[in-house]
Amino acid sequence: MPFDARELGPLIDKLREPLSVITIKGMGLAAGQDIAHFYRATRSPSSALYVGRRLLAFAWHKLRYGRSMHLVNGNALVARLLKSADNRGVDLRTHARGVALLRDGRRVTGATVVVAGSEYEVHARRGVVLACGGYPHDVERRAGTFAYTPSGLDHWSAAPRTNTGDGIRLGESVGGRFNNTLDAPAAWTPVSLVPQRGDGADIVFPHLIDRAKPGVIAVTRAGKRFATRIEQAKK
After folding, report:
1. How much is the pTM?
2. Residues whose CB falls within 8 Å of the CB of residue 114, separated by 6 or more in sequence, listed in order
């Protein structure tokens, strides 16, 4: 469900904005009825009214807050998690990178973290949780995991470029083992590279909704089909 970012107060500065390529000038559209109204705006008076209200609200938010306060999709989910963590008194630190785990014998007692260029030791009484995601931008591990990507650079990921598998390496540093025998260790989707002006890196756009549209057949330049509708894939 949508989330009003004004509930976050100053915490809004800790929330990453959605990718520009999946918004309208920064205004996110939710899958389902929200985006359907935008598709029907020129054919349905009720949809035109709905879209008009959304655009006016977005314009006001940009003028008043500098960004949209109407959060949808994953942005809304993360905002709710952020609000819940703050309500519980969690110490939230962004731009922080775990570089090592602290040990007392065989027991993990904390972590060494680099925040804005400065190194700190964080000590834990009850344990350390490594909730760091996967390894979409760990070129070496990708090359060793997927036989069909021998260079580790044959496919593009829409995950943040800072997601380089640090958590996995930290786990391995204290005796953890990485299981590379899974049949399907990744969730694949067709993507497009969206060029940026200047020296900006290309944005990877995932076609999550496109391939589920009725009648869609995705082919390469050579006419070879490479993606099917989700319903067909499940069958």
Report:
1. 0.76
2. 96, 97, 99, 120
